[in-house]
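Retro notes
What went well: the complex prediction finally ran end to end.
Inputs used:
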Amino acid sequence: MNVKFQNMVEQIGKVILGKREQIKLALTCLFAGGHLLIEDLPGIGKTTLAKVLSRCLGLNFRRIQCTSDMLPGDILGVSVFERKTSSFVFHPGPIFTQVLLADEINRATPKTQSALLEAMEERQVTVEGKTRPLDKPFFIIATQNPMEQFGTFSLPESQLDRFLMRINIGYPNRGAEHKLLKQGEVKSTLLSTEPCLTPGEVLMIQKQIAEVHTSDALLEYVQDLLDFTRNAPHFSAGLSPRAGLAFLRAAKSRAFLQGRDHVLPEDLQKVMFWVVGHRLRSHDDRAELSRDRLENLLMEVPIP
Amino acid sequence: MKATDKKHLLPILGAILLAVSPHLFRLPPWIVIWCLAFWAYVLAASKNNWYRPGRTILVILTIGGFIGGLATYGFKFNLDTGVGLLAVMLGLKPFEMKTHRDRMVTLFLVYFLVITNLLYSNNLVMSLFMFASVLLATAVLIRINHPSGSFAANLRLSGVIMVQALPMMIVLFFLFPRIQGTLFGMSNQSIAITGIGDRLSPGSISKLVLSDEIAFRAEFKNSIPGPDRLYWRGIVFQHFDGKTWSRGQTRPVRQAPVSAGSTVGYTLTLEPQGEKWLFALDMPITSPPMARMQNDHTLMAYRKLKARIRYNVISQTTYNTGDFKSEERTALILPAQGNPKSTALARSWADTFDNPAKIVNKALEFFSQNDFVYSLNPPLLKEDAIDDFLFKTRKGYCEHYASAFAFLMRKAKIPARIVGGYLGGELNPYGNYLIVRQSDAHAWVEVWLPARGWVRIDPTSAVAPERVEQGFEAALPPEELEGFFLLKHLGPLQSHLKKIIFRWDAANNYWNQWVLGYSYQRQRELLAQIGINIGSWKGPVKLILLVLGLISFFVFLISMRLFKTPVAKTDDVQRCYVKFCAKLTRVGLTRKPGQGPVDFAKTAIDLRRDLEVNIQEITDLYVLLRYARGGDENALKKFKERVKEFAPKPTI
């Protein structure tokens, strides 16, 4: 594994106890330049993970708590008339940052959610006719609570598609929880986390990841997987080309973090569920497929 | 009620309905209503959470339905009763479909139901229908066990399974021992169609004209004789009681006393009519093995025909039956009383002419010169039927003319008899055979003339010559044909439809010949050809071994395909890697098709520490060549060598 990366996982692992797999996935996602959706119950450590990630990457961090009365302006920013200069001055919203944590994103109205859309895809925002680029790098880490559906606006598939990965954290195991209970509040450990990278380094790694080699044989495997989701009867709709690109990007990122300069089929398989899980629906009841089922299905596709 | 119950109910009901649908026309109406009502209720109940009857009510319904079913069939236990009771049970079955096991049992019942259709009919349509039914039942079976994917995918898989079963079906078809006689020894009247009966009275032929059913098909070895010679002889009527003609006593003869003439050979496929007579062109000179030739030149089977038969006959179209025999004197007997006018007419001819041939011509002239009409709807004839017809109504179908003509001849002291059979037939260009339908039924007269023997005279041809040349449609007045469905009403579509009908008939003909016609006898012959004599004790053993051998061969072929790892690309690197995997498979380390090389190496090394170095090296080279940059010729060479050297030994 890449030494720097190993170091980061160690650092974050001190705060988020016993969740190395999730930490690696989150880093994979962010280094691939993708947005991350964390779906889990309240209190499991979603926000902490987001915070510690941004801290560790040495990036600016802002947080918005989504509510149903939140307006796009609350996120993007508004122009305010200033008497001194007798002109409108743009007051940038919380989105002008490097890591934005959108907590409980499914509580925001579709109008506000769609304001985030442009920012996520284009990495720029348009307010009052003026387009403003966002910082680089720019990540959105959104969280949502899958259990509580009252008064929420669940994200439509088109919006889910914009998140490179969706992960869940899950309860800590007994040992980790024991340690957590012993050390008490996580705040202090969070604050003591030293940045491992600078924004420049993050951009650098992203660039290197883009150059990870993908052989023709591997691309064919990706295509076989995509074809499978499109033709097999188990899914209501297959993966889009955008999903295909995201899939490959995530695999490249994983390969890089593993210290390789080429992608293996295993890379695809390891990130598979987290990249495609929220993009596929079962044909029967349009529900999402479980991890076991999805992985079993996709493992049927022979590696060319 | 669980969601799975609801989900599977509709497909299972669909499979039942399709399987039972041919029976619905045979079952008593109350059983049909019983089934459909219960199924509709089950379906609605599952949607709306209505009341579902408990065990007690079901038991009461079952017993009630059972008794009701038995009572409907008069407490006789035969095939119909069995199917009826099965339907009664099936009506209730969906009520107790609660567990997976119930659903499986119901589906197996559906398969059984599909087979019961075979007890009634085994024609081509039924066979295609049964294939469709099995296809659906299998798809539902797949669905209730693997409830994922679309139903179209289930159907596709079901189709694939059926195609895989095809070789085994063919093996069993040819080699599974055939039963002599009908299945379960059940006689089945319902498959016989109504043909020419053993009595001839006004109306007995014309009622057949309405039937489009096929009487038989005839394939000629050489060219087909002209329409004026296509008189298919079936039965000879000797006795006349003033109204009705009936068969006389006949006796079997060894060889038909027919003088030499041109012969014509053909093969007839006769549909079962439930009677004994076989049909053959005037005059048959050979007799098929299941029949004997009678002294009136008809072929009589040993027992009534309840199944389709195929036989070869040779006929002479020009013939001389030779001398008048004493037993043929019945051809002169008439009732003493009645029909005075006709009697007088015939007597006058007999007095005028001394030559019987001239009397025959005079009689034919009488028909052609007076205003006789060929008609399907003749007026009812009164007491003296012949007088009434000849002098008053003058409208009739072939049986009227034959009857009157034979009467006149007998009164004029010329031996005469009526022959019942078919005239003509339709040529099917696809298969080159004649289709003879019930509507081609015909009756004509034979008179005995000195030096010529029995001579065929068709009085109908004197009235309506078109009947012989072009069939009954051309001979009848147009207003009588209005009620018929005739192809010529369709205008330009006619020729296309005709083609389809002919093709369909040809398909049926092949089906009858090659599938249904594959009898015990034919199987014996086939087995004898491959050296299996079913009669000896060795024969059955050889047969069983052959069947088992062939079936396991097909199973082997199919399983080979199942276990074969699909190889999409076969470039050098991949081919070599596949070889490496095959070597590992031999020692029990199998790569799943979706397993990546590194993962596979890891699992393999975990199991076989001793092979670690080799596996790791080969895998690294493979990854380098296939997925990484910088794989060159040297690496490839090395990779090939390593794979070649790699020889894992199985663990003990």
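What we learned: The longest helix of chain B spans residues 538-563.
What to try next: split runs per interface for comparison.
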